[in-house]
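Human: If only I could read C-alpha cells as easily as an amino acid sequence. Take your time, and here it is.
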Amino acid sequence: MAGSGASARHIFLTGTPGIGKTTLIHKACQSLNKAGLLTQGFYTEEVRVNGRRTGFDVVTLNGRRGPLARVSEQCDTFSGRRREYRVGQYSVDLQSFEQTAMPTINTRSVSPGQEPVFVIDEIGKMELFSQSFVQSVRGILDNPMTTVLATIPVSRGKPISFVEEVRNRKDAVVYTVTRENRDNILKEIVESVKCSVETFNS
C-alpha cells in the first residue's frame, strides 16, 4: 500500500482482469450513496455477443453509455470512424470515450460544498490514449478538495508510466483485490472513502 486507509485521500483498487474490481466499485458506490455521499464518474463494462467478448463500453454513473473499444475486426464499420488506437485485439474509440467519460470528471461543474467522490474505472492503457484524460485525472488527484475512488491495472510487463505515478502517490492507498479477499474487502474500502471525505472535504 502507498499509504494507510485511515490517512489516504485517494483510494485505488488493483488486481488481475476479471477479479471483481468493477463489481466492488458498484457496491462501494451503492454504500456511499446510502450514506449520503455523492458519487460522480464512470466505469467500464464488457460487451458480449453470443457469449463472446467483443469489446468494452464506458458507462457513467448517471447512465450514459458509449463504446470504449471493440475487437479490431469490427473497426472499419464500428461507429463509422477510423481506428488508430489499439490494445491487443481491441481498437479504442477515443472520441466516444472522451465525449462520454470526460464530463464526469470535470471539477469545474461541481458546486462548492457539493463535492462528489470521483469514481474512475479505470485508469488503464485504453483510457490513457487520451491526453485530456491524463490531464484531468492528474488535476483531480492534485486538487486538495477531492477524493478519488479508482481502479488501476496490476504491475506486469512494461510499466505504464502514468499508472505507476498514480500507484505511488503518497496521498493514496492501494487495495489489491484477490479471490480470497474480494468478498470481505468492501467495508474497508468504503470506510477509507468516508474517512477521506470527512478529513479532506469537510
Notes: The mean pLDDT is 89. Strands lie at 10-15, 39-49, 52-60, 65-71, 85-87, 90-92, 117-120, 147-153, 172-176. The radius of gyration is 17 Å.
